[in-house]
Design a protein that fits this description.
Elements (H helix, E strand, L loop, with lengths): L7 E2 L3 E10 L2 E8 L4 E9 L7 H14 L9 E7 L2 E7 L4 E2 H7 L4 H20 L2 E2 L8 E3 L5 E3 L6 E2 L20 H4 L6 H17 L9 H10 L10 H10 L11 H7 L3
Antiparallel strand pairs: 1-2, 2-3, 3-4, 4-6, 5-6, 7-9, 8-11, 9-10
């Protein structure tokens, strides 16, 4: 990383730890030198961008998060350029991903329920502001030691009514968490996020993915055709909500995150 020292980026950020490093992209825990505040820092090296859409996604994430202020959504602090780097600074949130939490298998049912409620609250807030995440999955959901949840990675988010940086009918998202309409490349609504949430919730409560196949193609086919019920989940209201989220046809799903919360007594 270029800057004024091995651990300092352009006299503004002191890098404390590297969380992720891919071609062109880095995620770090850092100190904001001017503010004296610990932050989460994401950088994009404009000289080593492997995919031209990455810059659009990076800018979209900053723009989208700047419009959202909710305890269950990661908070963006700053966006800008330093030399060859674009950067976004976020609130520091010491956490594990929901993927790590599911693998650990150490949550009680009441804690799992609270995780689902927080996820729905964050989505309800975003959807009310016409923001569709489009990539809800365990890796993009963060939990701290007290199981407080924040939704992260809005790089694929779309604000309804605005032009999308993706081509019409292009497919965006993570295949195993896509809704049927997302797989078909159709225009997406909040119901697509709700289907993805249903997959996440099923996995959270059972430890297994409801549509996982031998390969990506088989998984996508299962999402399109396999009928799934959450019969093994003991909580009647949770089971009913997950079943309502996993309906194949968008208009047959629960209409909103708010409706799902109401069904859970929230």
């Amino acid at each position: 990383m270029d800057g004024s020292g091995d651990n300092v980026l352009f006299d503004k950020f002191e890098i404390l730890d590297c969380l992720k490093k891919d071609v062109g992209v880095g995620v770090y825990i850092a100190n904001h030198i001017y503010l004296g505040k610990r932050i989460l820092l994401k950088t994009l090296d404009r000289e080593h961008i492997p995919d031209p859409t990455m810059l659009s996604r990076f800018q979209r994430e900053a723009k989208t998060l700047a419009q959202l202020d909710h305890p269950n959504i990661i908070d963006v602090l700053d966006f800008g350029t330093l030399g060859q780097f674009f950067y976004i600074s976020f609130e520091y949130f010491k956490s594990r991903t929901l993927r790590e939490v599911i693998r650990a298998g150490d949550l009680r049912n009441d804690q799992k329920r609270h995780v689902l409620v927080q996820l729905l609250r964050g989505l309800d807030y975003a959807h009310a502001r016409q923001v569709i995440h489009r990539d809800i999955k365990p890796e993009n959901i963060l939990l701290d030691d007290e199981n407080r949840l924040k939704i992260a990675d809005f790089g694929l988010a779309h604000i309804r009514g605005e032009a999308s940086f993706t081509q019409q009918a292009s497919i965006v998202g993570t295949p195993s968490y896509m809704s049927p309409e997302q797989i078909r490349g159709e225009e997406l609504t909040a119901q697509s996020d709700l289907f993805s949430t249903g997959i996440v919730a099923y996995e959270l409560f059972t430890g297994s993915h409801p549509f996982l196949g031998a390969d990506v193609g088989a998984t996508l086919n299962n999402i399109l055709s396999r009928q799934v019920t959450a019969a093994e989940i003991q909580n009647d209201d949770v089971r009913a909500v997950i079943d309502g989220l996993l309906q194949k046809k968008a208009h047959e799903r629960l209409r909103s995150a708010a409706e799902a919360l109401h069904a859970l007594g929230e």
